[in-house]
Design goal:
Rossmann fold, six-stranded mixed β-sheet, 19 strands, about 40% helix, globular, P-loop_NTPase, ATP-binding, transport, nucleotide-binding, ATP hydrolysis activity
């Protein structure tokens, strides 16, 4: 509530408080709703004062006013609900009398019992003063306390960007996004010294499947935001009506991470989430169209990454958009699922009166497009610049790895075990990883790769079986196995790169931070850079630098190449090969295997939570 009050207009706080109170009332009753309302009031005061850059005197003034109002509300509620008030007072009176009777059995406590009885009678006689005053005092004390505690949190979070990259100015015209023409369009972010887009010219019309291809940082996502309705810094976007982002007949966006767009508990609920009650949607037909036939009653949490992306497309189609933008929608999907998803997107303009724009850095995904727009450094170019492949794989005799470091025996894991919604993710995994090995674990979406990664790191306890690092359960050694998440940004919690790496190392000094950055190929000058300014490849390297600073015995990397362009991929592969050459044990979990033979000497394939293949990689060895 404090963050809402600090970053948004008062009506946003009022709306959030009222809606939260309604949910709280349904879930927990009147007292729970009142508690949520109190949070809204206290958080609103602190956040509003922070937003206006004022201090403690403003907090005291507002808290006194709010306390007086809350006191009057408390008294008013007891006046209105007189029967409840009488029952409450009778309970207090009887409790006081019972305590006094107990105390009177001890002569020395009789005066105390009489004083207690008289005080209770006085409080009940002037109850409106006591209750109103106590409520007001509680609000004032609570708000002042929150000013110092919550206010400190808000100060720490003030550097985080609060703008919505898809936000756009209100357009009073009727929703009609196509055809859309960009005439010498450019865009520059407020915090940047250079343009993200420069002099972009092209048109998208109904019935087209257009691919926008470029490397990380080329301006693809910025262009997607312009197409979705964001105003450019200069140039003109011409369309017959409003972009209508999220509205019927308007523009829909499917993002890189489908779980960030899924809101419903059940698949069928998510398709119609947010639509008006009178909207007529053929849910079963849409699910069948995107390859999820018969899954309407499935829980969304049980879907694989590819299935979640298909669900996001179905939910977008439920709004009958004229323009569908898929921004790196294939980045977290396995190769088979990627091909199927691209084929699905390519077919939509032929079966619906719409256009589809696919944002990707995989040129092979653009083969199905009618038109391909290449972006480089924010400009439209004839073709993408080539990237030099510098990896050198050494063939020859492979070292023998005989010293076990990680053992998994009969490992099973069931999500929501002992409930009607239980889902088995791992079925009896037996796996031994030796010191110095590089193990590549592959498999399709939903095969159990990420669950296995979290189990190896000790963040998930197996439902059955054991997972041990050097003979001890990994759950008792959290941090000894370093884990790089699939979404690197979720692991970066500090404001700057240097502070982030230092925190991983337990507060190490600047010299050790510099050496950790050297180890992952990052310039030492990047230590002062803000985390939000990093590219995808840089964010992954910062996570690796933090892991190196924490000195793990083994590192597990979950999808380290997801969302990276060819140059970023090659840089990460080179880095991992170098780390393994230095003696570090690596487990790489990925469905993107191109180039991984330079890092891993062994490949394990998962299928439906079981090990299907465990064999040496086609080309083992290191650089």
């Amino acid at each position: 509530m404090g963050i809402i009050a600090q970053r948004h207009r008062p009506r946003a706080l009022v709306t959030a408080t009222v809606s939260s109170m309604l949910v709280a009332f349904v879930a927990g009753g009147l007292m729970t709703a009142i508690g949520v309302g109190t949070c809204g009031m206290v958080g609103g005061i602190v956040g509003n004062v922070k937003r206006r850059r004022r201090g403690l005197p403003s907090v005291l003034t507002l808290s006194l006013l709010a306390g007086a109002a809350y006191g009057l509300f408390s008294v008013g509620m007891l006046l209105v609900f007189s029967a409840t008030r009488d029952l409450f007072f009778d309970t207090v009176r009887d409790t006081a009398q019972g305590l006094a009777n107990l105390a009177s059995k001890q002569p020395s406590l009789v005066p105390m019992a009489d004083a207690f009885t008289d005080a209770t009678a006085s409080i009940l006689r002037f109850w409106y003063l006591w209750i109103g005053g106590t409520a007001a005092f509680g609000v004032v004390v609570g708000t002042v306390f929150a000013w110092f505690v919550l206010g400190a949190v808000l100060d720490r979070l003030s550097w985080l960007p609060g703008d919505d990259h898809l936000d756009s100015a209100d357009d009073p015209r009727p929703v009609d996004p196509l055809p859309v023409r960009l005439d010498r369009v450019g865009y520059r972010y407020d915090s940047s010294r250079s343009n993200a887009l420069t002099d972009i010219d092209f048109t998208v019309d109904v019935g087209e499947f257009v691919a926008i291809v470029g490397h990380n940082g080329s301006g693809k996502s910025t262009l997607a935001r312009i197409l979705a309705g964001r105003a450019p810094s200069y140039g003109t976007v011409i369309r017959p009506g409003a972009a209508g982002l999220g509205k019927f007949g308007g523009t829909a966006v499917v993002l890189q991470r489908p779980e960030s767009q899924i809101l419903g508990v059940l698949v069928a609920d998510d398709v119609v989430w947010g639509l008006p009650a009178d909207a007529h949607v053929d849910v079963d037909g849409l699910l069948a169209e995107v390859g999820l036939a018969g899954m309407g009653d499935r829980e969304t949490a049980s879907l694989s990454g590819g299935e979640q992306q298909r669900l996001a497309v179905a939910a977008a189609l439920a709004r009958r958009p004229k323009l569908l933008i898929a921004d790196e929608a294939t980045a977290m999907v396995d190769p088979a699922g990627r091909r199927e998803l691209v084929a699905l997107l390519a077919a939509l303009p032929r079966t619906h009166e719409m256009a589809v724009v696919l944002i990707t850095h995989h040129e092979t995904e653009a083969d199905a497009a009618q038109r391909v727009i290449h972006l480089a450094q924010g400009r439209v170019v004839g073709h993408l610049p080539a990237w030099h492949d510098s990896t050198r794989v050494v063939r020859g005799a492979q070292p023998v790895y005989t010293e076990p470091i990680l053992r998994l025996a009969g490992v099973r894991h069931t999500y929501l075990a002992h409930t009607p919604w239980s889902t088995v993710a791992l079925h009896g995994i037996d796996l031994t990883v030796n010191r110095g090995e590089g193990v590549l674990i592959v498999g399709g979406n939903g095969s159990g790769k990420s669950t296995l990664a979290w189990t190896m790191a000790g963040l998930i306890a197996p439902t059955a079986g054991t997972c041990e690092l050097d003979g001890k359960p990994t759950t008792a050694q959290v941090g000894k196995v370093g884990l790089a998440f699939q979404h690197s940004r979720l692991q970066l919690q500090r404001r700057t790169v240097g502070a982030e790496v230092a925190s991983w190392g337990g507060g190490i000094g600047s010299g050790q931070v510099a050496r950790a950055l050297d180890a992952v190929g990052l310039d030492r000058g990047l230590a002062s850079s803000a985390i939000d300014e990093l590219s995808g490849g840089q964010a992954r390297r910062v996570v690796l630098a933090g892991l190196m600073a924490s000195r793990p015995r083994l590192i597990v990397l979950d999808e380290p190449l997801a969302g990276l362009d060819p140059a970023g991929r090659r840089g990460i592969i080179d880095l991992l090969a170098g780390l393994r050459a230095s003696g570090l044990t690596l487990i790489v979990i990925s469905h993107d295997v191109d180039g991984m033979d330079a890092v891993c000497n062994r490949t394990v394939r998962l299928d439906a939570g079981r090990i299907a293949i465990d064999q040496p990689s086609p080309i083992g060895g290191v650089r």
